[in-house]
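Annotated sample (chain length 253).
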Amino acid sequence: MILPGTYDLYITNVCNLHCKNCSVLDWKGKHTIHHMDMSEVARIFDKIKRLGIVLDEIKIVGGEPTLHKQFPEIIEYILSQPTQKSLTVISNGLNLTEKVIETLTTVDKVIFSVYPGISAEEEIKQSGIEDRLKDVEYWHNDEFQYFDEPSKVVRIFGTSPAKNWNRCYLKHRCRTITDDGLYRCVIAMNKRSDICEWNDAEELLQYMESDVPLEACSDCSWPPEQKPWKSLKPEIDSKNYNKGLELIRSINV
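Output written by the structure step:
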């Protein structure tokens, strides 16, 4: 059975940037994800295989997933499994060692997250690294969502579970894979709400195709306020950015 859509797998809470209001590393001031080891990754994929499920797309995310010490092994393992039609990695592009690049050449797509003032986009393009990858996108994150602050839309038109659900895109773009089961969106995962456990393939399909608001929608005013991207630790992030650029420039493509 194919489960349509894209599904996020958070393999680490380690990151070389400190984005204010990161949806998983600064969710109301705390981390909501942990660092997975290889055994947990394998356990998740065993559950998917047992149910005979194939996911349209799996996105490997973090944190910065390339900082995981077992990143190459994790990617190699997932690619060996019959559990997804395509595999994507999302990275900020500031840890492009030769080993990481070699691993990224094996996946179907790499998405580089781009932030104001610390973008590696031009360096990556000029380096020739992009030419070694199968498919590349750049996601520009000029603004971040402030989930505690309702936007003008919410203030004018009000909020309700149905309104929040209908206005939200996370239910389509941010489905989340965990050891315990699937979450329809990252906010539900943060709240540990509305999980669908790895019990039955048909149940999972119905959950993913359901158009009924989640319990998490009751107090998730959508859309939230958006504000310019900021770093929680600008000096550290600046140093890590410069280190990342030096790494890219040192690569002999």
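Annotation: The longest helix spans residues 234-250.
Annotation: The two ends are 40 Å apart (CA to CA).
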